[in-house]
Amino acid sequence: MSEQLLIQQEGQVKYITLNNPRRKNALTKDMMTGLLAAIQQAEQDDTRVIVLQGAEGNFSSGADLMAGDELRADVTTYLKTAVNPTILAIRNTDIPVIASISGVCVGLGCNLALACDMLLASKDARFSQIFTNIALSADGGGSYFLPRMVGYQKAFEWMALASMVPAEEAHHYGMLNRLYETPGELQEATRALAQQLAEGPFIAIKHTKANLRKGMESTLEETLNLEAENQGKNFLTKDFLEGIQAFFEKRKPKYQGK
């Protein structure tokens, strides 16, 4: 695993830190392939929540255009082999992925965050689809994620003008789940939310993500069918029995993720 990617397992929460602080956590090929490997590993171990964050006050300044000649020589192959599989892995894993964002979150770094299931930020965070500043168009799934969050017209404005969007504006337009005053408050809240999800009914939460993914990408009929199939699986879990029993006993359930 690259030293530019730090992995820390705390119980059932896997913290993944983008660690290229001298370049505001600009994303290299090693970081992207390492992130993909970390997500794949999370599906094999006891991880129930993944937190994606940046080191030393910034989330990410985007792709590291100074990292070597490979990206510039054949950017299409680079994106298809190193970037796209990682974005898809974040979206396709049924493990919840939280982006915890402070400071700069732009370009590919922004779209990496947009791929996550929840976006938490501190008020110092700033976001940009910065691509057109250097005569590029968006990559990393921004053209898919952003209009679904803020609407087509606002997405076009932010992308075409490479707007630098303050955290409060991003929150206003629905790009962020929650906004915190300081990076310290963000860190504390991220840990609390991750722990809350980790202690929840893991199978039901995984099915919730799968259902939502289907609902975003497929027809109503296909979504209804998946919901029905997953609900049948939920009814067979120990967590469902515990949830029902706790409800009648008026106590907090103790889920096992089984």
Instruction: State the end-to-end distance.
Output: 31 Å
Strand order of the largest sheet: 1-2-3-4-6-9
- From N to C, what is the helix and strand string? EEHEHHEEHEEHHEHEHHHH
Structural class: alpha/beta
Average pLDDT, all residues: 95
Largest sheet: 6 strands, mixed
| Beta strands, count | 9
Can you tell me the residue ranges where pLDDT is under 50 for at least 5 consecutive residues? none
Question: How are the elements arranged and paired?
Answer:
Blueprint: E1 5-10, E2 13-18, H1 29-42, E3 49-54, H2 69-73, H3 75-92, E4 97-101, E5 104-106, H4 107-114, E6 118-122, E7 126-128, H5 142-150, H6 152-160, E8 164-166, H7 167-172, E9 178-180, H8 183-198, H9 202-217, H10 220-235, H11 238-249
Parallel strand pairs: 2-3, 3-4, 4-6, 5-7, 6-9
Antiparallel strand pairs: 1-2, 7-8
Helix pairs in contact: 1-3, 5-6, 9-10
Key features?
258 residues, 11 helices, globular, alpha/beta, three-stranded mixed beta sheet
Report on this model:
The protein has helices at 29-42, 69-73, 75-92, 107-114, 142-150, 152-160, 167-172, 183-198, 202-217, 220-235, 238-249; strands at residues 5-10, 13-18, 49-54, 97-101, 104-106, 118-122, 126-128, 164-166, 178-180. The model has no long low-confidence stretch (mean pLDDT 95). Helix 5 crosses helix 6 and helix 9 (202-217) runs antiparallel to helix 10. Helix content is 50%, strand content 16%. The chain is of the alpha/beta class and 258 residues long. The strands form two sheets. Strands 1-2-3-4-6-9 form a six-stranded mixed sheet, with helices on both faces. The protein has a three-stranded mixed sheet with strand order 5-7-8. The two termini are 31 Å apart. The chain has eleven helices and nine strands. A hairpin with a 2-residue loop joins strand 1 and strand 2.
